[in-house]
Amino acid sequence: MNKNPRICIALDYWEKDTFLPQVQEDKLRKISDDLHFIEPRNLQGESEWIGWLKEKKPEILITAWQTATLPENCLEEVPELKYVCHFAGSVKKTVPTSLLEKGLLLTNWGNSISRTIAETALMLGIGALRRASHWTMEMHQKGGWKDRLTVVTGSLFERKVGLHGFGVISRELVKLLQPFNVTISTFSPSVPDSLLEEFGVSRAPDLESLFSENDVIVELAALTPKNTGIVTEKLLRSIPAGGAFVNVGRGAVVDEEALARVAEEGHIQVALDVYGKEPLPLDSPFRGMTNVFLLPHLGGPTIDRRQDAAAHGIENIQRYLAGEELESQVTVEITKRIT
């Protein structure tokens, strides 16, 4: 491998500023002093994009949200290109699967953003129990204030928390929940008992038990054909009164029409960061419900923590140059499952 590889960085100015603050750029410059930056907005169409790549002949290309799609004939035109290090998550708009089939290596931000998603889940859970959405609307729009005789709020301390799915985000969330002395269970059939024991989490025998026996349900199951719509109205109605349903995973895992009906009845609190259709339609029944805490899919890295994804990418570049296995590699098979 080239010990001083040519690295091209196709990030818009705001992507470069947030993914690559000076501390991360310095790390990149220690790997190579042959760096070339371009703002995608300065390239007019596919011909200029491929022309720039042909001129620079990068071995490694760093991309993110604003990077233009790589042309299908990219590897024929730029045979020097071996590895695309995508600092963001979804790769479908940037790298055609056909290029992976031809041998191009590709990684994304992988699990580097898991702790910030877990942080969002914690915030939404606490916010739901504290009725943050209700009081925000009351105080901003109605000049409201609490009535000590009727006010109802809840705390996360000593609660029972159910996690639907036990991937890396759930494991990060377990760490954040530790100070609250909660009892945690999960439904994730493929996870071994040894891992649950390591994190002090019990196994729910089925989804019915998970939903009916916990005060707070956090939805983190992967979106697969089997899981699409798996959270039904029956499950949602089984959450104890005063409990909360939090979704920071995938909107399509939930029957959202059923969730809207259950939420409208007001017996549980709901907190959502993801939806089956995004952006959330203006006429969504969730808008305006005082017991529904809404975020516009902000659970990923905050602006100040985008550098975590860059750090992960830079470590992958070092692995690539050392001939080591890449983390968060996106293969042809994985692209078929990406949502």
Structural overview:
There is one protein chain. The protein folds into 2 domains: 7-109 and 303-337, Rossmann fold, CATH 3.40.50.720; 114-294, NAD(P)-binding Rossmann-like Domain (Rossmann fold). It is built from 14 helices and 12 strands. It has helices at residues 13-19, 22-31, 45-56, 74-77, 97-101, 114-129, 132-141, 168-177, 193-199, 207-212, 233-237, 256-265, 306-322, 332-337; strands at 7-10, 35-38, 60-63, 83-86, 105-107, 160-164, 183-187, 202-203, 216-219, 244-247, 269-272, 292-294. The strands form 2 sheets. The protein has a 7-stranded parallel beta sheet. Strands 2-1-3-4-5 form a 5-stranded parallel beta sheet, covered by helices on one side. β9 (216-219), α11 (233-237) and β10 (244-247) form a beta-alpha-beta unit. α6 crosses α8 (168-177).
